Amino acid sequence: MRNAEENGLAGMSVVRSDPVRLQVAAKIREGITELRFRPGQLLIERELCEATGASRASVREALRQLESEGLVHSVPGKGTSVAGVSRQEAIDLYEVRATLESMAGRLFAQRASAEQREQLMECVERLKRNTDETARFMAIKDEFYAVLFAGAGNSELLRIVQTLHRRITVLRATSLSVPGRLGVSTEELERAAKAACDGDAETAARRLVEHVEAAADAAFSVRDEADAAPA
């Protein structure tokens, strides 16, 4: 029998504060984000129960939640596995992401309050201090986007991008796994944030498109290297 560490399950024990299913979902989502759970990997309910200390019912509810986010895929009779993203799906997702983020940058430059502009730059400073820990970096980057889209003042845009970001969790983690990418990503976001906070809508939009394109290049470089590696 494989142990918890071999299956990416180490450190997943949950506490009894928030609803257990939400904690379990968060732990699995974190494992997917950190690439401890790889695309295609089967998630065995019994092992998840043992690792988290949660009941099978809670684990199943968590897996259903993650399936609704597009992070896992369930096949009757075969179980639940980490969802993969084909190359064409990845290209499509990055195209949509570039469009949405550029729109957010443009609207932020036009609509954001002084407080939101200050918050965006604070997020950039925090990113600079956390370029050595991917999970922490991604959490702060999520806050950056939360401020960016809130400042854009379009609730539908925010709702759509939240769904998209959940869908591309694995792609984001993959791109950030490239050595030095966290620092470069921070520089790209800082340029975009400065333009947005200065009210330069077109430059902010262009900088965010450049950031997404660079992230796509990084993610595809990892995939291409993995495909080229000997079996």
Structure description:
The protein is mainly alpha-helical. A hairpin with a 3-residue loop joins strand 2 and strand 3. Helix 4 (87-111) packs antiparallel against helix 10 (201-228), helix 5 packs antiparallel against helix 9 (181-197) and helix 9 packs antiparallel against helix 10. The chain has a three-stranded antiparallel beta sheet with strand order 1-3-2. The protein is globular, with a radius of gyration of 19 Å. The protein contains ten helices and three strands, in the order αβααββααααααα. Helix content is 69%, strand content 4%. The longest helix has 28 residues, at 201-228.
Keywords:
231 residues, mainly alpha, three-stranded antiparallel sheet
What is the number of strand segments? 3
Number of helices: 10
Question: Distance between termini?
Answer: 24 Å
Spatial strand order of the main sheet: 1-3-2
Low-pLDDT regions: none
Could you say which structural class the secondary elements and strand pairing correspond to?
mainly alpha
Strand content: under 5%
Helix content: 55-70%
Average pLDDT figure = 89
Radius of gyration: 19 Å
Order of helices and strands: HEHHEEHHHHHHH
| Cα shape | globular
Q: Biggest sheet: strands, sense, closure?
A: 3 strands, antiparallel
